[in-house]
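Troubleshooting: if your tokenizer reports a length mismatch, compare your output against this known-good record of 332 residues.
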Amino acid sequence: MAALVPPPPPPDPQFVLRGTRSAVNALCFCEGSQALERPLLFSGSQSGLVHIWSLQTQRAIAVLDGHGSQSVIWVQTLPQGQQLLSQGRDLQLCLWDLAEGRNAIVDSIRLESVGFCRSSILAGGQQRWTLAVPGKGSDEVQILEMPSKTSVCTLKPEADAKPGMPMCLGLWQLSPQANSSPRPLLLVGYEDGSVVLWDISERKVCSHIACHEEPVMGLDFDSQKARGVSGSAGKELVVWSVDGPQSLQVCGTHKLTNPGIADVAIRPDHKILATAGWDCRIRVFHWRTMKALAVLAFHSASVNCVAFATNGLLAAGSKDQRISVWSLYSRP
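Known-good structure output:
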């Protein structure tokens, strides 16, 4: 009888970025575009700084200081590629101009929520985009049209719903039917463990599912498959879908060894899912089957964020002040 061949050990990171000098809370890739010709990674740290990393030299090429030493919890490039958003615990959301070597704040929004909820954007046409931010009320989400900062609406649950604070947001667009325009939708993970789908145009809840027993810490959505995933402070990773007339349905629950999922990310090719764990581990799953593929035990403190590049690179930021960059299950 042939001996069983053990699975290969998990790989090491392709490289590690050091120098933030504080916990890494947020990551975002930005690859070649008209304004940024080199592949870059942006990181937001607990010290209030945003580092711009060259993936070619594996070094920070600039440091942005716009949040008064207050933790940066979200960074996101705009589709044009020459502007960056950063959200800090100083209640400021800053818009940075990165064109032609500039690193200047050109606009900002004063937020009114003291929570840890990261904002979300949805690209529009003609340099316009939609922004979802935590609102003034503890359970509210505000929708803005950018860059004019025009208020579109405030989404507030019914009085008897009591979902608590929004913990994570995900804007996406429903593909238009014949003779109709695209519909912007918002997924919200709440403090009570529920995931709610909002129709922004109608200012109403389309669907609600009770996914978790603990607050939802991160979610991501695959608009191609109309399927999403959420992680919480508990042990459950929940996969759900948007079926029929904008109805959320739980597809499956996957219990992990240890509690605490800080972030989740689906690779742009819709094949791989990564999670950031409070147990210092990055877990990688096959997105269609949810088969566990790897447990990456590189970091020495909780992993706070994960992000994929369009070429498949995975980055993870940790409380141990390091960013690990991985090449896993490479795209053909």
